[in-house]
Amino acid sequence: MKIAVASEGEMVTGHFGHCEAFNIFNVENGKILEVKAISNPGHKPGFLPNFLNDLGVNVIISGGMGAGAVQIFNEKGIQVITGVMGNAKEVVEAFLQGRLKSTGSICNEHEHHGECGE
After folding, report:
1. pLDDT in tens, 11-49
2. Nearest 5 degrees, angle CA 70-CA 74-CA 77?
3. What average pLDDT does the structure give for the chain?
4. Which whole number is the average pLDDT over 82-90?
5. Exposed, middle or buried, 29 (CB in 10 Å: 0-12/13-18/19+)?
6. 110 partner at 20 to 30 Å CA-CA among 3, 30, 43, 68?
7. What CATH superfamily classification does 2-107 receive?
8. Residue 116: partners with Cβ closer than 8 Å, 6 or more residues away
9. Residue 109 above 60 pLDDT?
10. Do residues 63 and 117 touch, judged by C-beta distance below 8 A?
11. What 3-state class would DSSP assign to 21?
12. Stronger pLDDT, 43 or 9, i.e. the higher one
């Protein structure tokens, strides 16, 4: 399983599309085997969900996310968890333990970077 976390360094970012990078966690049998950061290739409508799908991502975790991205992830069978804050690795560990729940936080104002989830 591959879990992507929209991140700023080691922390979950407030908005999926404007993140610095995606920390990709390769997980097997409930354990993190490998983590690598992939720079955000750019925020264009519909691009990032397809980009992450092509990387084989099964789960995406972010602070906030636009409704269009959520819809594309849902169509591709990728689990979306939003409304998350904190250290990316700790968040993934919480997910693997069944302790991480999505708040369903949807951003409607893409032009207002940094205001998602408020």
Report:
1. 999 989 999 999 999 999 999 999 999 999 998 888 999
2. 140
3. 90
4. 96
5. exposed
6. 3
7. Dinitrogenase iron-molybdenum cofactor biosynthesis domain (3.30.420.130)
8. 14, 15, 63, 64, 65, 105, 107, 109
9. no
10. yes
11. strand
12. 9
Distance from C-alpha of 31 to C-alpha of 19, rounded to nearest angstrom: 25
Domain spans of the chain?
2-107
Segments of 9-112 assigned E as strands: 11-12, 21-28, 31-39, 59-61, 65-66, 79-81, 106-107
Rounded-to-integer distance, Cα 54 and Cα 77, Å = 13
Q: Does residue 58 carry a pLDDT above 90?
A: yes
Place of tokens 């097997």: 28
